[in-house]
Amino acid sequence: MKSSDHRTAPGARALLTGFGLLVIAVAAAVSFGAESVSLARVVSEPESLDRTIVLSARLPRVLLGVVSGGGLAAVGVAFQTLLRNPLAEPFILGVSGGAAFGATLAILFGLTALSVLGASLIPLAALAGGLTATAMVYAVARRSQAPSATSILLAGVVVNAIASAAITFLKTLVSAAKAQELLFWLIGFLDVPSPTALVSLAVYVGIGATILLVDAGRLNLLALGDDPARHLGVDVRALERRTFFACSLVVGGIVSITGLIGFIGLMVPHALRRLFGPDVRVILPASLLAGGGTLVLCDLVSRVLFRFLHTEPPVGAVTALIGGPLFLLLLGKRLQT
């Protein structure tokens, strides 16, 4: 019994930490912003302006941040474990860039109002782009029995460059107003989503995250290496395919609504791993909670800056300013080892 308690304690602490961060972030984001509101009036006065602001604007935006941040952090855990590289992250690996290219194609060809079997074509196009980018990085990584961090990161940089160049080319074919709209979207932002978009995103992220959670134990074994995992009964290739599909599903759904938001998948898993160890069964669910809280807090910073800058910086810029230096720090440490 003591041994079991010892194993489960880190999981409980990690979940409590992630849940606590999420609750604090949501409470702060609902309470503060460009306009001051009173939560007491929100609760006690159904017709008040404060209630309208919270329920119609802030809460949907906060929920979008919770779902998006949690999904990006969970994908970061999966990629880092699958590639055995703590620097792996959907933005850095080019998966987000590929998803953005797929969504950009769908938007430019006027497919925003179309659907297949009730599913919007924008997330589906982003999923196709993310899967293509993932396959390209995976092909490079599999060329070596022990792919190095450098080769994987270089593959991601190249894929990102290709996607960025393709998007830039497409922007030259549209009007200046449409190009400006695409530019803002590609930087990454959280806006007030429609109920349909929010529910659709929750379905995409929920399906992908469920696949990853079910496979968390197998991902733990895969971290030991392909051969040890195979000897322990893991179908390595099937696990890799499921993981890449789940990650692309999550990233595609998020990018189709928020644009490119980077480094959440790097910052959150790394911090949790430092605190609670590398067990994927612990870090993955905790990252779902903490990732949502982290992105909501970054978006709160963006909204509060409006008071001083009289403009609202995209949340993608905020996460890049925080996560970029962290990535350089981690990369420097790995190059020294």
Automatic annotation (TrEMBL):
<dbReference type="Pfam" id="PF01032">
    <property type="entry name" value="FecCD"/>
</dbReference>
<feature type="transmembrane region" description="Helical">
    <location>
        <begin position="152"/>
        <end position="174"/>
    </location>
</feature>
<dbReference type="InterPro" id="IPR037294">
    <property type="entry name" value="ABC_BtuC-like"/>
</dbReference>
<dbReference type="InterPro" id="IPR000522">
    <property type="entry name" value="ABC_transptr_permease_BtuC"/>
</dbReference>
<feature type="transmembrane region" description="Helical">
    <location>
        <begin position="244"/>
        <end position="268"/>
    </location>
</feature>
<feature type="transmembrane region" description="Helical">
    <location>
        <begin position="91"/>
        <end position="114"/>
    </location>
</feature>
<feature type="transmembrane region" description="Helical">
    <location>
        <begin position="57"/>
        <end position="79"/>
    </location>
</feature>
<keyword id="KW-0812">Transmembrane</keyword>
<keyword id="KW-0813">Transport</keyword>
<protein>
    <submittedName>
        <fullName>Iron ABC transporter permease</fullName>
    </submittedName>
</protein>
<keyword id="KW-1003">Cell membrane</keyword>
<comment type="similarity">
    <text>Belongs to the binding-protein-dependent transport system permease family. FecCD subfamily.</text>
</comment>
<keyword id="KW-0472">Membrane</keyword>
<keyword id="KW-1133">Transmembrane helix</keyword>
<feature type="transmembrane region" description="Helical">
    <location>
        <begin position="194"/>
        <end position="214"/>
    </location>
</feature>
<feature type="transmembrane region" description="Helical">
    <location>
        <begin position="314"/>
        <end position="332"/>
    </location>
</feature>
<feature type="transmembrane region" description="Helical">
    <location>
        <begin position="120"/>
        <end position="140"/>
    </location>
</feature>
